[in-house]
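Hi R.,

Here's the chain you asked about this morning:
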Amino acid sequence: MSLLRRRKPINESSDSKPLLEKEGEEHHEEDHDEDEDDGNGKNKKTPSKIKKKPPPQSKWSCLDTCCWFIGCICITWWLLLFLYNAMPASFPQYVTEAITGPLPDPPGVKLKKEGLEAKHPVVFVPGIVTGGLELWEGRECAEGLFRKRLWGGTFGEVYKRPLCWVEHMSLDNETGLDPCGIRVRPVSGLVAADYFAPGYFVWAVLIANLARIGYEEKTMYMAAYDWRLSFQNTEVRDQTLSRIKSNIELMVATNGGRKVVVIPHSMGVLYFLHFMKWVEAPAPMGGGGGPDWCSKHIKAVVNIGGPFLGVPKAIAGLFSAEAKDIAVARALAPGFLDNDIFQLQTLQHVMRMSRTWDSTMSMIPRGGDTIWGGLDWSPEEGYSCSKKREEDDTQITDQAGAENAVCKARSANYGRIISFGKDVAEAPSSDIERIDFRGAIKGLSAANTTCRDVWTEYHDMGFAGIKAVAEYKTYTAESIVDLLHFVAPKMMARGTAHFSYGIADNLDDPKYKHYKYWSNPLETTLPNAPDMEIFSLYGVGLPTERAYVYKLSPHAECSIPFKIDTSADDEDTCLRDGVYSVDGDETVPVLSAGFMCAKGWRGKTRFNPSGIRTYIREYNHSPPANLLEGRGTLSGAHVDIMGNFALIEDVIRIVAGASGEELGGDQIHSNIRNWSEKINLQLEETQVYSSR
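And here is the predicted structure, written out as tokens:
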């Protein structure tokens, strides 16, 4: 009994004692249980009447869960990588064929069976961001990166040293050239743009198919350039235009006098337009090749995804450092991209960096309201984003007039490229009260010492300037240029020195001999080369950004004051996540890619005085049937189209000697002809020129 009385308080108070005391008491009790005295001096073992408590179990923390999860991913990844490297090279194709049936031959294999062989030398002209850039000289933070890629490849330095990377990828905000102590240069050779990142092809598929009919590096040339610079500055700093000229002349001379076929992609289309004017212009501004240089050296220019008249997407990038995808990401994670992530305020640094790249201003929409529409009209008026394509205007009968009027009433006002509020985007222009922002006093500066590292020109605007921009309510293509001058005067001062966005009144005016007009097809003429052909190849069938609904973002230090209003949606007018869409290749609207070859250059016009033959080849987008097809062989997307088998086949036939007529002439799926007819553009040159 005495033993039991001793144990009772031990049990009752055991939970309140420290763990070491509990363990000591349990050992002590076990001794009593085993050696209890029976009163005669003999030890008598009795079973313990107290249950032993199990040792405390450790809790599973959140950190343990994360480590376990990451470990599982790593093990799975390495296992899959091992299996991928261990399996036969033909296994993926075998699985794909088992699911989808036999795969078609790649275009190069197919056309080689038809007897096609390499004929004309080929020149590739990459677009913006797809060409690799490497470091030749840098600051202390870039130690060990000599001739390592800063752009393209694995992009390892973006997350290893993000601020250092931004510093070295930025250009001087005053000159548009290298900052002091930094030299970043384009990678040379076919590897400059064959892959953008590991596994993400750009030119690689086309190059491989050309190789199948006999092409090799001596008959293919990648005209790599620093895509950040203005076009003329690539010659000033790197003599890139001179190198392209020399390489083309060499290829023609070493291939029996056969002219080259030039294949520009995306912004490379505008870059090569600039080159064709530069090469024939007299030195020192031009290359001094003479007025017949293009006629002697170029067989055809095969433009792929060309933004001849600019892209609205460029406006969103310059105005708020975003496009549809970025805007959606901001909506899903409010404040995330505006906050300090790993000491990198993401969007602010992207804006600061990209606004030093003069090339981005080459893609601001050209032609003003004449091309892109005004407050109450646009060429794409009545476009339907449903799967069923809109009917031709010629098929609309008089009896359907009322129905057509209803359709037009619900059509998006695509001419309003930026609208502050969905109600403004949809309202009749007569109901919109606008206060002109031009000349507005910008007021007190919003900049402070905490904004120095992420300075953008918005910090010089002040709150009154930001308010003035919003109170103008809506912007068309013409007022967009004034808007950018207002919000980013330093950037636009550099930009307007190198690019122009209007329509020439008279192309005989001597001012159009300046290089700032050479990349604008509406302010310059094609070369005097009647035997040359120009193709425009591009994808259709994908929603492509055309106009935006904006809102003021909540004020915060160092923030970008405007952002796309992702809450704005309307399926009837192709409005989703604050973005109005039209037909195109996800980046370039059909209007920009097709208008010049459909109308502006078709036949002899003042923009095409020698009557160079032009052709449109559209490729309807078809997504991959399954994941094993990767990015697909029938894609119409802006970059993925470079792996489109139908496009590659057309390109191979052209470089092997086929003409546009032999290719089948135009191939059109969109409404580009009708949209082009709605544009009232003067195509005949005025008879009288008066100097100004």
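One quick note: The chain has a mean pLDDT of 83.

Cheers,
M.
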